[in-house]
């Protein structure tokens, strides 16, 4: 009997979660040494298949550059492993003897991993390593346009883990993903955490699932070439970064802002590095290709090279063209060059001074990149610190390639393929997400300070007693009044005082 594809996808997801939960319960008893051996073997296996997986990803998604995806896979495997290999993630992970506080690591349980089409294999490897390192299980929902290469990466990791002693089922996946199965995975009762990397709609679904979730927002990254920058070096880095894997990393530069007094130098260097400047007629054609539906990005340009995108617009460019550039002055959703493009296309904005440059960068971030990243080229440390203080971003790369620098390739940032945007972008963290984000930390605290709890004050007790005595006196007065049934007016206050005096004499005797 042939089952409906969506039903098959749902059943596969449920089976994977069930197996992952059972395997994770076994994995809980593994020592730090056992965990570390498994993580190392998985990293080695993934690294050895970096090129093979890169070829599969480009062939299946029709996006990016094989050589660049190979580098991504190497960062996602070896660089990530090197950054987490010495972390304690099992049992007591820290002891503060001075303050008598002991910290104990505890995993979340089953992690749901959502993988994007732009970085399908490197993200799968990365999420596998940080999950295994923290004794979590992982169940992955690949992007439908990248399911084969993603599942192959997971199979490589899973085989290596089992060969190193991990329980079967610890790494699971949906081989024929559907939107319904992905949504149900995020809401599944046995899923304890969501790692969502993908479009804004998917990230919103992760946050609304009712589960703890790490989701990341879009990255409409401005790059500012400030007047003190070494323009030739800055431009080369920017073009190299923008063309890395055809711009598919969300931290890639999306718009150039340049100071007026170095504008011509920047344009010259851009042309020297393979930029083709569009005239007004060509710019209009390109706008329709970038955003054929107003305010929406054309997904067909994502991860394509500049020559192919020019052909899509009916524009003839030299065969060695690396990026397409158009001068721009406006920033808005209906201004195609100003939105996030994930392709080698740049708007060029000219700022008359640093203040205007900050305003332009802020406008671009507010358009769709708040909290993510900003790139800056300058030799003025004061300028860099001003941007760091004022810009609503979680990472600011200075004098480096933004795409590779943000994920930890050319900077001291933690290697990661899930880049938090903080509260600026509606995320729970502004960190480069890594192993420590997949742990609960329990704290055992011994008493270190003596404290004396004071008894209730005497004055408070006396006041309460006075109130009670007054109530009793009033009751006696009322009873006397009822017995006497006087004909004329009675001074109740005088009687009350007499009874009160009588009670006092009685209590002292």
From TrEMBL:
Pfam families in alphabetical order: Aldedh (PF00171)
UniProt xrefs under InterPro entries: Acetaldehyde_DH_acetylating (IPR013357), Ald_DH/histidinol_DH (IPR016161), Ald_DH_C (IPR016163), Ald_DH_N (IPR016162), Aldehyde_DH_dom (IPR015590)
Limits of the Aldehyde dehydrogenase domain: 11-417
Keyword Nucleotide-binding: no
GO molecular function: acetaldehyde dehydrogenase (acetylating) activity
Source species, domain of life: Bacteria
Keywords: Oxidoreductase
EC number: 1.2.1.10
Name under which the protein is recorded: Acetaldehyde dehydrogenase (Acetylating)
Annotated source species: Priestia megaterium (strain ATCC 12872 / QMB1551)
The gene coding this protein: eutE
């Amino acid at each position: 009997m042939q089952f409906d594809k969506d039903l098959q996808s749902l059943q596969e997801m449920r089976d994977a979660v069930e197996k992952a939960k059972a395997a994770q319960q076994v994995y809980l008893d593994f020592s730090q040494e056992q965990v570390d051996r498994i993580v190392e073997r998985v990293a080695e296996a993934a690294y050895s298949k970096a090129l093979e997986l890169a070829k599969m990803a480009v062939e299946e998604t029709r996006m990016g550059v094989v050589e660049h995806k190979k580098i991504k896979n190497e960062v996602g495997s070896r660089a990530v492993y090197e950054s987490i290999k010495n972390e304690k993630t099992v049992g007591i992970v820290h002891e503060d003897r001075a303050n008598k506080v002991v910290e104990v690591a505890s995993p979340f349980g089953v992690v749901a991993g959502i993988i994007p089409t732009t970085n399908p294999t490197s993200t799968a490897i990365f999420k596998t390593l940080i999950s295994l390192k923290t004794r979590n299980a992982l169940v992955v929902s690949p992007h439908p346009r990248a399911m084969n290469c993603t599942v192959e990466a997971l199979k490589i990791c899973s085989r290596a883990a089992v060969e190193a002693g991990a329980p079967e089922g610890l790494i699971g996946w949906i081989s024929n993903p559907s939107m319904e199965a992905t949504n149900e995975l995020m809401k599944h009762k046995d899923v304890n955490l969501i790692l969502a990397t993908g479009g804004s709609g998917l990230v919103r679904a992760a946050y609304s699932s009712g589960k703890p979730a790490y989701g990341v927002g879009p990255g409409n990254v401005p790059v500012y070439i400030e007047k003190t920058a070494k323009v030739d070096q800055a431009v080369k880095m920017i073009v190299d970064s923008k063309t890395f894997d055809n711009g598919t990393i969300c931290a890639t530069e999306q718009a150039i802002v340049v100071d007026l007094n170095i504008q011509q130098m920047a344009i010259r260097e851009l042309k020297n590095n393979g930029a083709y400047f569009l005239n007004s007629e060509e710019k209009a054609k390109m706008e329709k290709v970038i955003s054929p539906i107003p305010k929406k990005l054309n997904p067909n340009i994502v991860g394509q090279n500049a020559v192919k995108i020019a052909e899509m617009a009916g524009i003839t460019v030299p065969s060695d063209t690396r990026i397409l550039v158009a001068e721009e002055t406006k920033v808005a959703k209906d201004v195609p060059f100003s939105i996030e493009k994930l392709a080698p296309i740049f708007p060029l904005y000219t700022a008359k001074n640093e203040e205007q440059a900050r305003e332009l960068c802020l406008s671009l971030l507010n358009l769709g990149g708040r909290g993510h990243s900003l790139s800056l080229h300058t030799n003025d440390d004061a300028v860099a610190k001003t941007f760091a203080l004022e810009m609503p971003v979680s990472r600011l790369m200075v004098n480096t390639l933004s795409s590779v620098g943000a994920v930890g390739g050319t900077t001291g940032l933690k290697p990661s393929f899930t880049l938090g945007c903080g509260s600026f972008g509606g995320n729970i963290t502004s960190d480069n997400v890594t192993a420590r984000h997949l742990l609960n930390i329990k704290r055992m605290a011994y008493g270190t300070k003596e404290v004396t709890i004071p008894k209730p004050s005497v004055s408070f007790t006396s006041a309460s007693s006075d109130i009670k005595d007054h109530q009793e006196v009033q009751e006696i007065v009322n009873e006397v009044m009822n017995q006497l049934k006087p004909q004329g007016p009675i001074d109740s206050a005088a009687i009350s005082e007499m009874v009160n005096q009588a009670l006092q004499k009685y209590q002292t005797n």
